[in-house]
């Protein structure tokens, strides 16, 4: 029997647009123009906690979070990064990487539950996704 | 001139009790009995973001977060871990490792701003700190 395949959680799929795939993680842009906000989802089935990944993939994940953090900060000029693995509602492991700045819709609070999402201007959303693909050296084709 | 020394942010000091020092991070127990909640603070001066640490210390940090996560889950039997680096209010880099369970004061929301802290019974707080020291193989003496 083949091992179970990775499938993106349906709620995460609804809430995001696809950016691209790093070696371990799928990169997604959250549909909320209030903050530049991406998710990293390790493409592994049935994983809920970072410590459920084997050690070498935990290190890979830390590296991909760092690369995504640097890209998001370089592109947006955000003043602070918020990085989190919560998963109380959607259990599939996903890491939030959010660019924050004083005066944004939730500042200085955490973003979860703080403000209703703002719909992106489609051009602005696509520009950000494209800039992320360029910075992360990935394209819009799933691995 | 010697390099600047690490000093714990005064607000973090007020909000926590000292557990012990891992190779990189100071481990602190947050004074809020609503959730088993620890902080890991890399003992490095003037660091705000995980990506401000050199690469080898980012990997060390990921390992210490994993060790602390396993310890907290083993001791408390929590169902979910919430792990986050936010720092919008206190800029000194600190990683939250929080044990969550359905029915806790904030479930399923994030804990920040969700409920007023509950004061610990001192015995219960000391028992948790002692169990953490045992699991993490550290003692109550700062390195």
Describe the structure.
Two copies of one chain form a homodimer. The longest helix of chain A is centred in the middle third of the chain and has 22 residues, at about 55-75. In chain A, a hairpin with a 3-residue loop joins strand 1 and strand 2. Chain A has one domain (about 10-135): 2-Layer Sandwich (HIT family, subunit A), CATH 3.30.428.10. The model of chain A has no long low-confidence stretch (mean pLDDT about 95). The first copy, chain A, has a five-stranded antiparallel sheet with strand order 1-2-3-5-4. Chain A has three helices and five strands, in the order H-E-E-E-H-E-E-H. Chain A is of the alpha+beta class. Chain A starts with 9 loop residues before the first helix and ends in a 7-residue tail after the last helix. Chains A and B meet through helix 2 and strand 4 of A and helix 2 and strand 4 of B. Strand 4 (about 80-85) of chain A pairs antiparallel with strand 4 of chain B, so a sheet runs across the interface.
């Amino acid at each position: 029997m083949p091992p179970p395949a990775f499938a993106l959680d349906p709620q995460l799929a609804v809430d995001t647009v696809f950016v691209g795939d790093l070696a371990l993680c799928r990169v997604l842009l959250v549909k909320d123009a209030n903050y530049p906000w991406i998710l990293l989802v390790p493409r592994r089935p049935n994983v809920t906690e970072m410590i459920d990944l084997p050690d070498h993939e935990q290190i890979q994940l830390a590296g991909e979070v760092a690369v995504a953090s640097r890209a998001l900060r370089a592109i947006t000029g955000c003043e602070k990064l918020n990085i989190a693995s919560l998963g109380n509602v959607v259990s599939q492991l996903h890491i939030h990487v959010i660019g924050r700045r004083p005066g944004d819709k939730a500042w200085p609070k955490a973003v979860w539950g703080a403000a209703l999402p703002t719909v992106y201007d489609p051009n602005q959303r696509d520009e950000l996704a494209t800039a992320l693909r360029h910075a992360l050296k990935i394209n819009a084709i799933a691995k």
